[in-house]
Amino acid sequence: KRTFQQSIKYRLKVPFGTKSLDAALCVPASVTDVHTAVILTHGAGGDMNFKHLLSLAHSLASNGFICLRFTCKGLNLGYRVKAYCAVWDYLKSLQKFTIKHMFFGGRSMGCRAAVAVARQLSNESEDPVQGVICLSFPLHPPGQTSAHRQRSEDLRKLPEHMRVLFVSGTEDNMCDRVLFNKVVKEIKAQVEVFWLQGGNHGLTVKERAEDSVLDEVNSKVIAWISEQRA
């Protein structure tokens, strides 16, 4: 049985140009020797307090990881990417932590931004981004499968050393499984896919308690991160 540490949450304002982004930092209560961090952001709707992100953030901190999640309401992907970079720069500036293992993540549009930033950084710097966590990757809008090539471009350009975890529902109307499996074959990065049986785009499952779904998804993400650091 896993032993959980306590977590502490801090509310933050991350500088972003002339504005600031609302953010929350969850850390283990004992912050000594914490070297792994995860950045998370939300999809096109909602904010950083979307229940799945909130649950995952606390679960990560309880298992000894730092989690910084943030809100960015802009629906333009390029704007989201800039916001993500600002949050990453902010996290690096925190003197309290020495981050050796870094993971970017998000839900839906948020994970598209995470992938784009990971790809950019892999081209231009030595930043220690080890992997990307994609919760409900939106391969295409509902019923518009032709968009899948454009939406998967950054995924296909990730380098071989990058690791990617996809968590998607089998009933997700924005991720056709046949198309998705074809895309995965074209990705050079090291990919693992976790299909949530009966899950929709919001990762909810009919006739299943939400907490049980959250626990299943969180456990998968934590186990995957732990494997990458080994």
UniProtKB/TrEMBL annotation:
Taxonomy, superkingdom: Eukaryota
Residues annotated as domain KANL3/Tex30 alpha/beta hydrolase-like: 36-223
Gene3D superfamilies for this protein: alpha/beta hydrolase (3.40.50.1820)
Listed InterPro entries: AB_hydrolase_fold, KANL3/Tex30_Abhydrolase, NSL3/Tex30
Pfam families, per database record: Abhydrolase_11
Name used for this protein in its record: Testis expressed 30
Natural source organism: Acanthochromis polyacanthus (spiny chromis)
